[in-house]
Amino acid sequence: MSEPRTLNVGLIGAGRIGSSHAELIARTVPNAQLVAIADPVEGVAARLAEQLHVPAAYTDPAQLLADPQVEAVVITAPARFHTGLVEQAAAAGKAIFCEKPAGMTLEDIDRVQQAVEAHGVLFRIGFNRRFADGFPQARAVIEAGRIGTPQLLRSTTRDPGLANPAAVAPWTIFLETLIHDFDTLNFLNPGARAVQVYAVADALVAPEYKDAGLLDTAVVTIRCDNGAIATAEASFSAAYGYDTRAEAFGSGGMVTAGDLAASTLRYYGPEGIAVDTVRADTQSMRGAYTGELQAFTDTALGHPSEGPGVEAARDALRIALGCIASCRTGAPVALDVVGAAR
Ligand SMILES: NC(=O)c1ccc[n+]([C@@H]2O[C@H](COP(=O)([O-])OP(=O)(O)OC[C@H]3O[C@@H](n4cnc5c(N)ncnc54)[C@H](O)[C@@H]3O)[C@@H](O)[C@H]2O)c1
To answer: Were both Cys, which of 113, 201, 263, 308 would link to 127 (CB 3.0–4.6 Å)?
Structure first.
């Protein structure tokens, strides 16, 4: 029997999540090999490449895209660069895995779609919660009709800390944090579309940064075209760890997914029962990140495996943009005015 083929992957943007994805590609994802890393900050790509025994390091993503060894790219640069990098990677004929969001506007998503279609390349977006323990199983229960008609859905992201409020770009809570929850709600309400959103947000963790545009706490209500009402909620500072959970309640039952216990260890003592909690996405989502990168690799190697693409990127971003409009007006926003009518 012949050896399974390996996908040669290049990573663009070696920051916090890029370093984690790089390590998973280099050491954990089957049939993937990390062959190049690019980051514009001098020394950043070279240091990570040395640590992971990756043969090539570049300061310009264009050099990585011109490297004939690279068959596929993982884009983990800051969000505002994603659309342009996807266009360049598609033009270079690379399969593309892009961290969320794929763009900052719906026009950006149109550009992504045009690029991947014009060049016939694979595109996947990093909505990792679809691969997190409990979430695909919850969707399977819902698809089997076991919760009946979906009526109430909820999804929560609570990050463990806000280290540097000054570095958080305005609207990040919707465009980069709650976008996971919007995708989760879409995933757990198959076939339905969000039609209206109402967002309430504030800077409760670091109020002194509110005038600079910081929003660190938000609740979003979403009405869907199958009648279901959903809520998404986020905080940038949960004292107890990294907390991501979802729930779908219907006429016939309910499913929940997500758990912040770090392990099955329970300490039983004089004060009660204690459970360690996960403290970072790179800890609790390690399996999900591996799963999404594996599905991408398998698909790029010709063994199709499900994962979110351009439409999922568009559907979640549309809700995020609706939230921004809702915050600006203080009123519910019909999503057809932010592109639902496409
Ligand atoms: N799916 C998840 O759970 C998850 C978690 C964290 C971050 N993210 C997403 O990943 C992206 C990166 O986030 P991060 O926290 O790692 O950011 P980061 O700032 O830690 O890292 C970004 C890296 O990209 C580099 N960079 C800057 N401009 C670039 C360019 N034009 N081309 C290539 N590289 C460039 C920077 O030098 C830096 O090393 C964001 O879109 C974010 O929303 C996703």
So the answer is: 308
User: Which of 12, 21, 39, 108 for mutating ligand 1's site (highest number of atoms within 8 Å of CB)?
Assistant: 39
| C-alpha of residue 3 to centroid of ligand 1, in Å | 34
Q: How far is residue 66's CA from residue 263's CA, in Å, rounded to a whole number?
A: 43
Tens of pLDDT along 109-123? Answer: 999 999 999 999 999
| Domains recognised in the chain with CATH numbers | 7-125 (3.40.50.720), 130-279+314-338 (3.30.360.10)
pLDDT of amino acid 252: 98
Question: What average pLDDT is seen over the chain?
Answer: 96
> What is the Cα–Cα distance from 60 to 47, expressed in whole angstroms?
15
Q: Would the pLDDT of 86 be above 90? A: yes
pLDDT in tens, 280-323: 999 999 999 999 999 999 999 999 999 999 999 999 999 999 99
Evaluate the CA torsion angle 36, 304, 88, 179 in order and state its sign. Answer: negative
Q: How far is the CA of 192 from the centre of ligand 1 (A)?
A: 31
With a 6 Å cutoff on the Cβ, whether 90 touches ligand 1 is no
- Burial class, 115, CB count within 10 angstroms (exposed 0-12 / middle 13-18 / buried 19+): buried
Q: What is the pTM of this model?
A: 0.97
User: Any idea how long the chain is?
Assistant: 342
- Tell how strand 333-334 and strand 272-274 pair up: unpaired
CA dihedral 81, 85, 88, 94 (to 10 degrees): -170
Q: 173 φ, ψ to 5°?
A: -60, -30
Strands (E) located in the chain: 7-12, 32-38, 56-58, 72-75, 95-98, 123-125, 150-158, 194-202, 217-224, 229-235, 243-250, 253-257, 267-269, 272-274, 333-334
